[in-house]
Specification:
Belongs to the nitroreductase family. By secondary structure, the chain is of the alpha+beta class. The chain contains nine helices and four strands. It has a four-stranded antiparallel β-sheet with strand order 1-2-4-3, with helices on both faces. Helix 2 packs across helix 6. The relative contact order is 0.23.
């Protein structure tokens, strides 16, 4: 098997896990994931990404902190601007993903309460035993965030290669002040996203659907 075949297989095997077993991931495995992911490129080799990783009771304390904040009715406050809209094909893909998710867990598309309850699973970290908070220096702006996105991708692929399931969650970044306060993170770092991770609950229906990907013809605009 060639290297490109191996990489393609890992990319195809990766999926967003929405139900985890409680079993913890060994520290050495987590370190190996980061050891691999750190080799991604970044502008000027700045390597702006930093991780705050929880395990054991620390994960539960963070879950509880998010639940308490949401119960207060605290409005979302992200460090980065949220997408203004999802128009055209982007909206189509977003809706298709949502409908596949609801179908997988038996929620009718008209069941607003059920859809909201499923969305709130984000803030319970989908039951994951670990979460990594990804931050980048505010002074690097969008380009630090872009570089960190490459690191998030590499983290999820390295985890997949080691049998660890992941889900990258922008939803957690919607409560950036809560995240920053809970982990005592500095004001000069942007809260970009979280990566909840652990071992997948393969019996959970929510983990069985897979989204479709655009083809090369959809992506490439050749110029000759």
């Amino acid at each position: 098997m060639t290297q490109i075949d191996t990489l393609t297989d890992i990319l195809k095997a990766r999926s967003s896990c929405r139900a985890f077993r409680p079993d913890p991931v060994d520290d050495a495995v987590i370190t190996r994931i980061v050891e691999t992911a750190r080799h991604v490129p970044s502008w000027c080799n700045a390597q702006p990404w930093q991780l705050t990783v929880t395990k054991g009771a620390a994960t539960d304390r963070f879950r509880d902190a998010l639940a308490q904040e949401i119960a207060k009715g605290t409005p979302p406050a992200a460090d980065l601007d949220w997408p203004a809209s999802y128009s055209g094909v982007y909206g189509d893909r977003r809706r298709a993903c949502g409908f596949q998710l609801y179908d997988a867990v038996g929620i009718d598309k008209a069941d607003r309460a059920g859809r909201t309850a499923q969305m709130m699973r984000n803030y319970a970290l989908f039951g994951a035993p670990h979460v990594a908070i990804v931050t980048s220096p505010a002074e690097l702006g969008a380009y630090g965030a872009m570089d960190s996105g490459g690191f998030v991708t590499a983290f999820t692929l390295a985890a997949t290669a080691l049998g660890v399931a992941t889900i990258a969650q922008a939803a957690i970044a919607a409560y950036a002040p809560t995240v920053r306060s809970h982990f005592d993170l500095p004001q000069d770092r942007l809260i970009l996203c979280a990566i909840s991770f652990g071992y997948a609950d393969d019996t959970a229906p929510v983990n069985r659907f897979r989204t479709q990907r655009a083809t090369p013809a959809d992506i490439i605009d050749w110029k000759v």
